[in-house]
Amino acid sequence: MAVPFKKDRMFYRFAAYGFLKNLRFFEPFIILLFREAGLSFLQIGLLYAIRDIATNILEIPTGVLADAFGRRKAMVMAFSAYLIAFMVFYSFADFYVYALAMLFFAAGEAFRSGTHKALILEYLKLNGMTAIKVTYYGHTRSASQFGSAINALVAAAIVFLAGNYRYMFLAATIPYALDLLNLMTYPAELDGNLQQQRQPSVKAQTKATLTAFAALFKNSYALRALLNSAGFIAFFKSVKDYLQPILQTYALALPLFVALDDTRRSSALIGLVYFAIYMLTSYASRNADRFSRRFNNLPQAINVSFWLGAVFLLIAGLAAWKHWAIVSIIVFLGLYVLQNVRRPMNVGFISDQISSQVMASGLSVESQLATVLMAVFSPILGALADAFGVGTALAVFGAAMLAFFALVRVKPAEQAVEVG
Question: Rounded to an integer, what is the distance from CA 302 to the centroid of its chain?
Fold first, then answer.
């Protein structure tokens, strides 16, 4: 019997979390913000690497803490760290201070990554809805992408009115403070059985979690599933912000708003394009299950989407190199859509390989693998962009992504990892 999909009270709270989380007003302009502060592409890549290495160092302990001591507490700590980072970014404009802010941002990413998905999956388990996890998570992610769409318009308005980018960090503290209140009032049952543990059994809980966490690396199906997802995320997140200088170049070439300064002229087009991107990705997330059902099985859908993403990135780079900005922008849009079609499918596939008790740890492993790759990719991409231009750098990474795909093709697994 099919399990019905219902939008109950917790669904809207999960959706509100994603909507507010994605109101990072600085994101559509982050590379332009750093460039305005005088940073090279290599320095920007190094900042990303600092963020990713720090996140990587914190991923395992924060994932284990989330599983052993409370996922809700981990989320509260995450958003507190984000708020500190936003205030540091707003208050200063220096590479070394930005590096400090990236450390706080990394703490937020480490505590958050995988944890909220584990909360959703626990809720589905408690309510007998695990059969529709791809559909359910796809709909909550759709709300996140809608938040990103609204974010783009609000961010463009802030830049247009203020004439600079820094105020977006201050504005971002408002939705993040609201999301912090939302997370603080999640029901305790979403921590699983952990809230029932008394102090003498905390050590046993930690040991059991670490044992199950280690088991992830002994299962080839689970490990390949994590690598496939993490690899795509790493390539995507390393390159996605390079759409911004392409958009800026295209906007300044248009005979529009010529009386305004370059920052205000480009902000309008950038905001509109990102709004269109995230409206499409919102639709894509909501229909991830429909996309996956077009294939014989979920692994096949995941493999095809990975290969398409690599081809899209290669085309985007070649188009930017040839100064075909509109082609590059359109293909980038396709890359964003693929990422958001893949995400619900990857989460569903990974959850088939990993037991629910260590889901937060398992998804943290995925995020850790992604951050390791991103820490390597980002400075290399920045150095290539400084030396040869953005288009060439993107094309090289598209070719590398195609080669990486050969190593991470997934196959159907026989069973999930059991807790030891």
Answer: 17
Q: What's the token pair of residue 15?
A: 């959706």
Question: Is 268 a member of any domain?
Answer: yes
Provide the residue range defining the domain that includes 159. Answer: 9-405
The total number of structural domains in the chain stands at 1
CATH number assigned to the domain comprising residue 195: 1.20.1250.20
Residue 402, Cβ neighbours under 10 Å: how many?
Answer: 16
Residue 316, in any domain of the structure: yes
Q: Examine residue 414 and state whether it is found in any structural domain, yes or no.
A: no
335's CB contacts (< 8 A; 6+ apart) are 236, 239, 240, 309, 312, 313, 316
Give the CA distances from residue 373 to residues 37, 56, 124, 228, 233, in Å, rounded to whole numbers and listed in that order: 26, 10, 31, 12, 9
Please report whether residue 17 resides in a domain: yes
SS3 state at 333:
helix
Is 136 within 8 Å of 120 (Cβ atoms)?
Answer: yes
Query: Residue ranges of the alpha helices (H) in 256-358?
Result: 262-286, 288-292, 298-321, 325-353
- Give me 132's structure tokens: 């529709």
Q: How many CA atoms lie within 13 A of 53 on its CB side?
A: 13
Mean pLDDT for each consecutive 10-residue tract of the chain (420 residues)? 70 91 91 90 95 81 70 87 95 92 92 80 83 79 81 90 87 94 88 53 56 67 84 94 91 74 83 84 72 78 91 96 93 88 80 66 74 91 95 96 90 51
Q: Judge residue 4's burial from the number of C-beta atoms within 10 Å of its C-beta, 0-12 exposed, 13-18 middle, 19 or more buried.
A: exposed
Q: What does the longest C-alpha to C-alpha distance in the chain come to?
A: 70
Tell me the C-alpha distance between 292 and 304, whole Å. Answer: 10
